[in-house]
Amino acid sequence: MEIMQTENRVIVSGCGPVGAVTALALVKKGIPVTLIEQLPDAAEDQRAATIHTPTVEMLADLGLEKEMFSDAPSGGMAAPLFHFRDRATGELVAVFDINLLKGEVPYPYVVQWEQYKLVHAALPHIRASGLGEVRFSSKLIGLSQTEDHVEATVGNEAGETEKLRARYLIGTDGGSSTVRRLAEIAFEGFTWPERFIKIGTSFDFGATGQGLCTRNYFFDPDEWLNLFKVKGYGPPGIWRGVLPVPESESDEEALSMENIQRRLQRIYQKSGDYEIPYYALYAVHQRVAQTFNKGRILLAGDCAHVNNPIGGMGMNGGIHDAVNLTEKLADVWFGRADANVLDRYTRQRRTAQIDYVQAQTIENKRKLEERDPAVRRKHLDDLRRTSEDVTLHKKFLYRSSLIDSLTSANAVE
User: Fold this and answer.
1) How wide is the angle at C-alpha 123 spanned by C-alphas 118 and 129, nearest 5°?
2) Distance CA 30, CA 130 (A)
3) I need a surface site. Which of 286, 298, 306, 345 has the fewest CB within 10 A?
């Protein structure tokens, strides 16, 4: 086993969007980074895609504005509007417009930009910095720390192992995090009894005359729906539907083409089958790590917290972690702050998760699936009134866009 003695760096474990942003932010601050990923390349998975307005600003500040707003398929789509609809009646309940925040925020819209495109945009900047090393096919299999360094045991596809030393290691390796497990950090919360299914289709729901915008939320006590559009690999783009799968339906039933087509035909009945480039079934959790820092081991993104995807808050919260953490770590690195400032990172970002993201995403799900007709009607009426009152409309946008979450968390001492 080879032991690499270089210690003057940070290891980032996991090359998803949060890992890529963390590594980019660190090299921008002059801190050497080794980014490791067990896969042979950055995964082109079809998970998160919504970049909320404060996150757009963060990515632009990191030098990714050109890539994010590229007209090419690798770029994103600005989307200021989102709709709430009653699926049973087809009623358009409320329209929210982030353009109302123009003059108050630099980017008054979300950007629909698939997470794998963000990763592929960040990697060239990391490599070009001269401070960033990216290692694929490098699986973390062991982890220990002392008072002054972290030692990571990494294996490759050939079965060879080596030890990498660093001053800090940041886990950004997802909800089933190896870093969190090896650091023995509890992951507190629960798992929803039902699963979610995500289905992508190249069929253009925007051309069906239903008046859909780029982001649509459908209330339905039997089968709620989130329906969003992304660029995909180019025209006509991809529409992505997220729907619940009840406990009574087996994985095999849910993933059968018959049931996938049935779910799409219920969105819009058309002749012939839908073309489906991808689909996936997954368990859904609401969990937060007991701490986001343990000595020289730090957690960010899904490694530190997971939530249901209704509202598009998971990846955004992870990127907010990355920006907060790298600012504090740079202060420690260059002697501007004591290491206990990393305790404040945990306090701030756990507050953002527990008080905002966890609470909001649980509330989002429960309202979409509300079964009591009277309670459901009241919620729809309240939502409409909120959208029609400018003050309430803006207040809703500040919360749903995670602006309030950032402001409140950053005030925590």
Assistant:
1) 130
2) 10
3) 286
For 96-110, write each residue's pLDDT tens digit. 999 999 999 999 999
Q: Is residue 387 part of a domain?
A: no
**Residue-wise DSSP of 336-390:** SS-TTHHHHHHHHHHHIIIIIIIHHHHHHHHHHT---HHHHHHHHHHHHHHHHSH
162-217 pLDDT tens trace: 999 999 999 999 999 999 999 999 999 999 999 999 999 999 999 999 999 999 99
Contact 316, 50 (CB under 8 A): yes
In this structure, the number of other CB atoms found within 10 A of the CB of residue 26 comes to: 28
CA distance 409 to 352: 5
Query: Residue 351 sits in a domain of what CATH number?
Result: 3.50.50.60
Helix, coil or strand: residue 289: strand
Whether 199 is in a domain gets the answer no
Residue 289 pairs with which residues in a beta bridge? 187
Start-to-end C-alpha separation, the chain:
43
Report the distance separating Cα 200 and Cα 267, nearest Å: 13
Can you tell me which residue has the tokens 């963390």? 22
> What is the tally of structural domains in the chain?
1
Phi, psi for 10 (deg, rounded to 5): -115, 135
pLDDT score, position 7:
84
Does residue 100 form part of some domain?
Answer: no
Alpha helices by DSSP H, 248-370: 251-254, 257-267, 314-333, 341-351, 359-368
Q: What is the dihedral of CA 84, 87, 93, 96, to 10 degrees?
A: 10
Residue 334 lies in a domain: yes
